[in-house]
Amino acid sequence: MSTIFIAGQRWISNPEPELGLGIILEAANRRVVIAFPAAEEERTYAAAAAPLSRVLFQVGDNIDVPNQGPLIVTEQQEHNGCIVYFAKDENGEIHPVPEQILSASIKLSNAKERLLAGQVEHHRRFALRAATLEQQNTSQAASTRGLLGPRVQLLPHQMYIAAEVASRPSPRVLLADEVGLGKTIEAGLIIHQLLLLERAKRVLIVVPDSLVHQWLVEMLRRFNLKFSIFNEARCRQIDEYEDEPSSIFFDEEESKEKEENPFEDAQLVICPLSWISSHERRQQQLCDAGWDMLVVDEAHHLHWHEDGSSSPEYKLVERLSAEIASVLLLTATPENAGIDGHFARLRLLDPARYPDLDAFLEEQSHYEEISELIQGLSDTADAALSDAEFCKRLETLLGSDQLKSLQKNPSAEQLDKTIRDLLDRFGTGRMLYRNTRASVGGFPKRVLHEHALNAPAGYEQACTTASIEESLHPEQLLGPAWLKADPRVEWVEKFLLQNPDAKVLLIAADSNAAQDLELHLRLRRGIASAVFHEDLSLIERDRAAAYFADPEDGAQLLICSEIGSEGRNFQFAQHLVLFDLPLNPDLLEQRIGRLDRIGQLGDVNLHVPYYAGSAQEKLLHWYRDAVNIFEQPCTVGNALIIAFGEELKAALASSDTTVIDSLIARAAAKAEELQEHLRKGRNRLLELNSCQPQRAAKLIASLEAEQRSDTLADYIEMLAEQFGLDHEDHSDNAIILRPGDHMITEAFPHLPEDGITGTFDRERALSREDIAYFSWEYPLVSSAMDMVMSSDFGSASICTIAVKALKPGTLLLEAFFSPAVQAPAWLQLQRYLPAQSFRLVTDQQNRNLSNAVAHSKLNQLAQGVKKTLMPVLLREVRGSITAMIPHIENLAEDAAKDWIKSATKAYETDRSDERERLQALMSRNSHVAPEELDVFDQETVLGLNALQSLQLNMSALRLAIVSQ
Ligand SMILES: Nc1ncnc2c1ncn2[C@@H]1O[C@H](COP(=O)(O)OP(=O)(O)OP(=O)(O)O)[C@@H](O)[C@H]1O
């Protein structure tokens, strides 16, 4: 730092800090003239003895400029001895701020200047700041960041995916776990991580209309994320523009002036898919609004056609995913409409990896081979690597360099990397995650109940001219009085009366049939029921679902049309009535998945009422004996339909029952063969990519350890004490916080006026939704931490300590430093920094006592100094501490060099792996342009340069004076 006074520099008076920030007016003839605009004072000093301290803000400090909101320093440059800060505002916009224009009444946030100026605070405040700093640095670099706070069970398969996906610079993946295994939760965990890591600010979720509110609620109650639902009504409130004249007075120019992008109004947005994909103007606005992350649920609705006639939904997501860096597509049935649709969705995520359909199909035929190679590497690496044939296969795929380096050093890390490369480049890819019930385990049993009924008169006759779809849905053939004629209706009625305590979900394909049936059962038979179908508004649908979910006074029966078979959570029910069976096996799996999902505590009872001897019965047998879907989720249902679809339809229509029997026998054999093939190939690869149990276990263990520690409870107590909140025990492991009578801030973030009850126990939080789950990531805690660190709260302190081992008059300077890198956020360099703050303790002899004098010990011994004694005390020790500070700063600078070294190494490893992948893809297909590699290299250089700017900023400084 320059000690020469230069006009325009900002300094503060050590004896009179209350004068505010001074500005040097003149520095000549060994004199310095300084004005203090805030106090309207001016002082003249001899330059050599001026009691002034230079005020310099560091990256990350808050600065004030008159008539401008709060700014945060991102960079500083020196010009002719004065500083120009570059500081970002709330919107992330960067402003140049010459130090001359800084507000004169600015508070000092620099710990050193505050200590020297005597602007010190009680040692408990210092302790709170130190604890905050420590925790902030620990959590910022922790691999579990963003996974701790959500109110969810720690399920290994979900945590693994969430951590793995969020660790990528811009995650683009297809989450394709089997129905009900928690894809919404996985997506929520990924969103939560990226938001907390500040790698995403604007998140857009696009979902089928029927799931809009469910997403809204899940994001809020599990992740404390407040999303806003956008629909046409909401957009109109913001954007009054009309593109069609509504009256003869329509003025197009005036209308254009009113144009505003409604999507810029919120950061976290949920949009119903049908609305947005059918509204051209809103789509344009949505694309223009700029997002960091896109999530699309039930992505199998995005239909792709090679000839360009893709569905509007696909086209919309294609447009969005070309613009948005991070994309999550969710579907339990990725191959629902064929393998080409699956390929097209993968291509949306990574066009370089999935350049064309034929190559993708060809690739699939080699999965078994890849799986064998991986098995060789993971089970018998030594033997495999000494087998010439094995090595040749590996070399063909990965090149001789990689093979050689693996043979030279077959360490666990190298083997792991090779397996990952094989999985990514030749296997199912790193874009696709699919966990299955079989791999996760612990799911309830599916129990089929077949209810054979006599077909009503006229049905058989009607079938002779009906299509097969009509035969499967007798309500379409039985005429307007079908409710009376159809024996399934009577069966449902009886079943409900015999099981009055059972919650029953009934799904019927046809919306009209669902409505007729519900009305009939409710009005004529007095059954407490609700109905859920596409003609209801979103609110009406949620009301129906909530009525069904109510355990006390809720409906016994919920009747859904097919839209109720997707995404909804009905696992509190244990009886599903399949009023009809769909021809599409994925649809049936989706239906069963409403009950057979995480949280289901009993058996899943599947009831199929059917007409004996009809197409319904044959289809039931097909699913039971060929697809085996009533026992376990079907993995080959689609493949069977591709192979036997036409034959199946013919068999359903045939009066000869042997036709279906022989078809089922052949299909069952084929299913067995396909399953065997999948087990050895695709499924094994998917399993390997989707969850690595050891890593998952490690992750869970560290989350549990963080959760167990009682430091959070202590920290909240400290917060409450220092900010004047009332803090009271509620019960074991739970507390109540309320605004107190002596709060030091007008309002405390996220603390309701009537207080909040929270528990530190995850299990308790899962069973008691009315109380908050307190973790380091809970908004009240994290905002309080931000409040402490973005101000000068507790940054400088002076205390006395009585220690026999030390001479009275010994001065101990304890400093905490936090790392700051001058780099754009998208480079995400934070994750390469160590998970800690940096602490130093020195004495007047400049001895480094950091290890010998623990922070907790100093806290224990610290005694406050009376305010009236402070000026005298400071006068005595100022000389010594002025000499000690540069030494402690030098130590921090040395430490920063080590940090830079290790961060650079970690960064380089990551980048070189990523570069290798890009190069490998480039050599395999022409869709990766050479320029991409140049851009990648430029980014790497940018990151490396930025890491060199890493500084350790002094964030808190305490002087401890050894007393008698
Ligand atoms: N880790 C968890 N802790 C607590 N509840 C969970 C967890 N994971 C999932 N659930 C619950 O299990 C149910 C299924 O989860 P989710 O809706 O995320 O599954 P999904 O895979 O998206 O389902 P679908 O395939 O039907 O769309 C939901 O009620 C969800 O709240």
Automatic annotation (TrEMBL):
Biological role: Transcription regulator that activates transcription by stimulating RNA polymerase (RNAP) recycling in case of stress conditions such as supercoiled DNA or high salt concentrations. Probably acts by releasing the RNAP, when it is trapped or immobilized on tightly supercoiled DNA. Does not activate transcription on linear DNA. Probably not involved in DNA repair.
Listed SMART domains: DEXDc, HELICc
Motif DEAH box: chain residues: 297-300
Domain Helicase C-terminal: 484-642
Keywords: Activator, ATP-binding, DNA-binding, Helicase, Hydrolase, Nucleotide-binding, Transcription, Transcription regulation
Descriptive protein name: RNA polymerase-associated protein RapA
Organism superkingdom: Bacteria
Its EC number(s): 3.6.4.-
SUPFAM superfamilies xrefs: P-loop containing nucleoside triphosphate hydrolases (SSF52540)
Domain Helicase ATP-binding: 164-352
UniProt family annotation: Belongs to the SNF2/RAD54 helicase family. RapA subfamily.
PROSITE patterns for the chain: HELICASE_ATP_BIND_1 (PS51192), HELICASE_CTER (PS51194)
Subunit composition and interactions: Interacts with the RNAP. Has a higher affinity for the core RNAP than for the holoenzyme. Its ATPase activity is stimulated by binding to RNAP.
Keyword Metal-binding annotated: no
Presence of the UniProt keyword Transcription regulation in the record: yes
